Prior knowledge:
Layout: H1 29-32, H2 71-82, E1 85-90, E2 93-98, H3 101-109, H4 119-130, H5 141-148, H6 157-161, H7 164-181, E3 187-188, H8 191-208, H9 221-241, H10 252-285, H11 295-302, H12 307-320, H13 323-337, H14 340-353, H15 362-365, H16 369-381, E4 390-391, E5 396-398, E6 401-403, E7 408-411, H17 413-417, H18 433-436, H19 457-474, E8 475-478, E9 488-489, E10 495-496, E11 502-506
Parallel strand pairs: 2-7
Antiparallel strand pairs: 1-2, 3-11, 4-7, 5-6, 8-11, 9-10
Helix pairs in contact: 4-9, 7-8, 7-19, 8-12, 8-13, 9-10, 10-11, 10-12, 11-12, 13-16
Keywords: Heme, Iron, Metal-binding, Monooxygenase, Oxidoreductase
Cofactor: heme
Amino acid sequence: MIRFSQRFCSLHSRPIALTGGLRWKATTSTANASSSTQGDGTVKPFSAVPSPSGSVPIIKHQRLLKGITSMSEFTVEHFKELGPIFKLDFMGQSVVYVADPSAVEKVFRNEGKYPTRDTSEKNINWILKRRNESNFAFQSGEEWRVNRSKLGKQLIPANVYGYCPGFNKVSRRFIRNVYDVQNADGFVEDARDLIRYWSLEVATHFVYGADLDCRNDKEGLAKELQDAVGGLLDCIFDLQTALPLFKVFPTKAYKDFNKNMDKLIEIGQVYADKYSSDIEARAAVSDEKFHGMSLLEQWLIEGKLSIKDAISHSINMLGAGMDTTAHTTAFVLYSLSKHPEVQEKAYKQITSVLGDDEKPDGDSLQKMPYLGHLIKETQRLYPVAPFVPRMLDTDIDLLGYHVPAKTTIVPGLEAMGQDPTLFKDPLKFNPDRWTTDDIHPFILLPFGFGPRACWGRRFAEVEMKVLLYQLIRHFKMESDFPNDKLSSSGLVLKRPTVPIRIKFTPRNQ
């Protein structure tokens, strides 16, 4: 859930199984092409890495980014033109983009003990220290590992599944909102609004144990919080690709980052103040129940964090609990609304597991693997976090080219997801491919990989599955959008750019 650069941060250090237990055999020509040398055994220098034309002195390729609305689509076009590896040169740095799963795996297998994502990580950590604040998502080295080690127990499956009752309650509120806003023909004119409400409500539930009703939010805090998170994401891109001139004078990106961070903390503190006193009191006497308690309560019971740090982390997690989950869910619901046959297959599976009055929990969700396949297939076609960069401490050879240490290397997730050499009918929405195809585990990395992977992956997956269960159980969904592919854009995150108009027809009619 945040990725400012990649929201939430790291589950655990062991490899994440992304293929649902499927074996993968490296048989494609693309995978075999990731040898670090050319046919004659030589490795080409970094200067020989393919690069688009249009570089000019000083600003280099910076000018190519002017006016673009989707960085992910921008890179897809350059992969088509230049091949599976290319580089962009910016003021003071080079960024290498790679769209080959075996090469991507090689990068992550060499990320070392203290993985670094990119230059924006250090830039933002510098700004936060100037603000006398900390956020382990943007720290590096030993500092990052020490703080990350304090946030581990909450991620065990028993604890994550402990939130299912609250996630079910919020999902049923989504259903209420559908009935409240749909027109006479059953259409919700823009489902994105309801998805945003749901995303913030599940975030406040597991962070504070709160029960918010955002659609009836009289104070307007929900929208302000969403705007602040979106503003921060826009700043990330500028802080990543430009020289760190903000260390000399306050640039626009620097001022905008601080403004949005101030707003995030201001609103987060309102929520923290509202719930933290009761949480502190319960935590002081609690010695039994743990699983399913709010994150803030669990942190205070463990005692590894001070009250100040626990509240600070809770505010960050609140911001983290919205955008990427909301955008992914929006793409999932759109995809389902365009494919009624997929809905019916999901409906058949979930009704074979639970009866009408039963609510999903950890055990039952594990018996509904098709919900996970729906999410994976959506993430393949619409990678909301399309960039999971790494900056290695050592030199590496990729696809026959030498890449020096401290160079930002970015996997091209959208390009790989649409590659016909990796997927049959790559533009077709087909969740079944996740049960029948051999898929390289480093093609789909929506939550990253390794120690710096998404901290809240399990929370995000469970809350999305609970919502999908409730909606598929109660409605047939359809869309009259004229295209199969939903319009999207974004420099850091991919997000829908048009209203998602969905007709919700109750199944019990």
